[in-house]
Amino acid sequence: MERTFIEEITTSPGQEVRVCGWIHRLRMLKTAAFIVLTDCSGSVQIVATPAQVTSLGLKLEDVLEVTALVRAEPRASGGRELQFVSGRVLSRSANLLPFTSASNLASVPTEVQLAHRPLSLRTESVGEVFRVQAAILEGFRAFLRSERFTEIVTSKLVATGTEGGSNLFEVKYFERAAYLAQSPQFYKEHGVAGLERVFETGHVYRAEPHATSRHLTEYCSLDLELGFVESAEPVMELERRLLTTLFQTLNQRFGDSIRKRSGAFLPELTRAPIWEFPECVERLRRAGIASPESDLSPEGERGLCTLAEQERGVPAVFVVGFPLAARPFYAHPRGTSGAAQSFDLLFRGLEITTGGQRLHTREALESSLRSRGMAVEAFESHLRMFELGMPPHGGLAIGLERLTAQVLGLANVREATLYPRDRVHLEP
Amino acid sequence: MERTFIEEITTSPGQEVRVCGWIHRLRMLKTAAFIVLTDCSGSVQIVATPAQVTSLGLKLEDVLEVTALVRAEPRASGGRELQFVSGRVLSRSANLLPFTSASNLASVPTEVQLAHRPLSLRTESVGEVFRVQAAILEGFRAFLRSERFTEIVTSKLVATGTEGGSNLFEVKYFERAAYLAQSPQFYKEHGVAGLERVFETGHVYRAEPHATSRHLTEYCSLDLELGFVESAEPVMELERRLLTTLFQTLNQRFGDSIRKRSGAFLPELTRAPIWEFPECVERLRRAGIASPESDLSPEGERGLCTLAEQERGVPAVFVVGFPLAARPFYAHPRGTSGAAQSFDLLFRGLEITTGGQRLHTREALESSLRSRGMAVEAFESHLRMFELGMPPHGGLAIGLERLTAQVLGLANVREATLYPRDRVHLEP
């Protein structure tokens, strides 16, 4: 008999079905046994007589196949339950588990959850984090395809870093050294010269020695880059529309849970204000929040989101016009006062995006490298591409794990990473 | 004025539009100048008087912004052309280019194309390779989402290899050694224990010292894994449906080009036969094609596709039941005669998929490791996950670059890779 997904069980009484899944709950009474079986589509209660199941030696998290009859049961979810006919244990779980798929993981340390990743994924709360993450990936790509972007896949093994060599992981590449890409920045810029609008969803690597709640050594970067952009504004405008569309989808699919976990539905990002960097410094000063003059501190990021929420009703703000010196060499100047056409998007207190307009001529790039004391020759294979017809362009990168964490109100980016990597963690 | 994508230019005569793009063709006559401008949406001819454009010093591949009037022109593609009003060169291309976006790249060596990737991408023929590749990625994910699979993102930095340590790239990871993942195999199996059905599209790494037309050191693997599978057959059945759906989409969107390049539309893969490995060896022997007894040679793969085409009219065949010894330690036995529940899908002469049913109990995995002389302890962090409720499962991996190459009839997998990596290539 074909296997039936639990969600697809009809309510026609008397119908026989074969279902497969994990034992999520189990109650053995004198007169009846109640098994709640879960698969990737949902859960169902199965009622058996003790005689039918005693010999199976069932326990929580065992993997079970059951043939059963459908029975209308108005009190059950979906209006039906199953009456056990026969069953087979497909796989046994251990006798001792630190938690089960029905546990409240709030009291289970992250390390223990991680060491039992399959089991933590099977809980509703953790499973949902990664279903939301998958929906973010899907929504990011779908929106950009609808805006004429082409997905690209670029190499993560590179000969030099995009930002001049710090925080790079070295790879033994046959007889020489290679490095793990910190960003697809150069490749997506080349992609603009070829395809005009490109995006990529892929890993990037930063040899961050410091473990904070916001940093990982490996994360998934949602990157886009587009041509015919002559300031930071069209890039911010694109992101506003992108995230507004994405957040609508997430509210529709996961809204109750997002509100429960984070305190609110996801806002309409088209309402997020755009504030110049000096204005932000001044606002923070007035609010008595410490933040350096050249960049934003974590406290500053939180403070600005609070101010945006108070003023505009949306806990998000685009900060534009950072000091050029605080941005990578390829950042385009914004006016002549030392500001860059670079922005960050802060959302619910955390920077989730960095973006802006880039320099698009070889001359400007060389001059920027020189002014920073960086070796022009080291970037030759990149600079050559700017002689092949490179339009003015800009783009952005969103950290997938950070965005997932902020959407759901998770305190640590590790909770939004299936297998987090940092100085300490290389397993599982 | 808002920029108009070329494809969206209406045919209302007299309307003024602003278009941006690259100069794809250029003819300067005494009485008129003809510019074919291309953007990510299409091409349009712009007619100017010599006086209007001479001072701009236009040349091929320059990046141009033009304000122009729409004019009905029945002979032009789309039934319209543009009458130049004013223009601005946004970016200059070099005076000397090895080819242009209108060149036939058949005579341009791959190395030269690669060294000028943005320019080669701007040609119709190379651009299309990567538009097809993007469509494959999209189609793979969309089909699997519709089959209840969840996308996962797993780490590419691992402490040990999945296949026992050969061909691994070593990464200097702070004070210790890490390795680049050869496959998300372990993680996707763990994913099955958590989410039942998972897929991932991401990079994998093989330190292949040999440069062949089929091998790269870094490639994009389309991976899936699903629970409640007790032989190789359901996995092959899923792939038949997956590729049939994907191929229909590709035929619809790129059919003419696929037929022109590869000689035929993409076939209906539901018609691909399934042949047991010993039967394949015998068929090849009868056809006089050399192939080892334990695996398939490249000649064998080509020969079997030819035989399938002759017998079934489809140049594809699933080969199932490879010798267990030729497969990784996690392969599930097929019967008791030393065969594995493992299959390859050969398509148009090349293996594009490896898949099968996996062992799903800790005991079976330990016994398999021991029988191969591999250290059980080295896999402890993996084996522990099999005690958390691991259903019988199986899955497959498709090489994205190989599939793209076979779809379009490209001779070398490097032609389907934006930035190929092999022993020689680490740049661009």
Any overview of this molecule?
- The structure is a homodimer of 428-residue chains.
- The first copy, chain A, is an alpha+beta fold.
- Chain A has 2 domains: 6-91, Nucleic acid-binding proteins (OB fold (Dihydrolipoamide Acetyltransferase, E2P), Beta Barrel); 124-416, 2-Layer Sandwich (BirA Bifunctional Protein, domain 2).
- In chain A, 30% of the residues lie in helices and 27% in strands.
- The first copy, chain A, contains 11 helices and 18 strands.
- Chain A has helices spanning 50-53, 110-115, 117-121, 124-146, 185-195, 233-262, 277-286, 298-312, 362-371, 380-383, 400-408, and strands spanning 16-28, 33-39, 42-48, 63-72, 80-91, 150-151, 157-158, 170-173, 176-180, 197-205, 218-227, 274-276, 316-320, 333-334, 339-340, 342-347, 350-358, 393-399.
- Chain A has an 8-stranded mixed sheet with strand order 6-10-11-18-17-16-13-12, with helices on both faces. In chain A, strands 1-2-3-5-4 form a 5-stranded mixed beta barrel. In chain A, strands 7-9-8 form a 3-stranded antiparallel sheet, with no helix packed on it.
- In chain A, a hairpin with a 7-residue loop joins β4 and β5.
- In chain A, α4 (124-146) runs antiparallel to α6 (233-262), α4 (124-146) crosses α11 and α7 (277-286) packs across α8 (298-312).
- The longest helix of chain A has 30 residues, at 233-262.
- At the A-B interface, β1, α3, α4, β6 and β7 of A face β1, α3, α4, β6 and β7 of B.
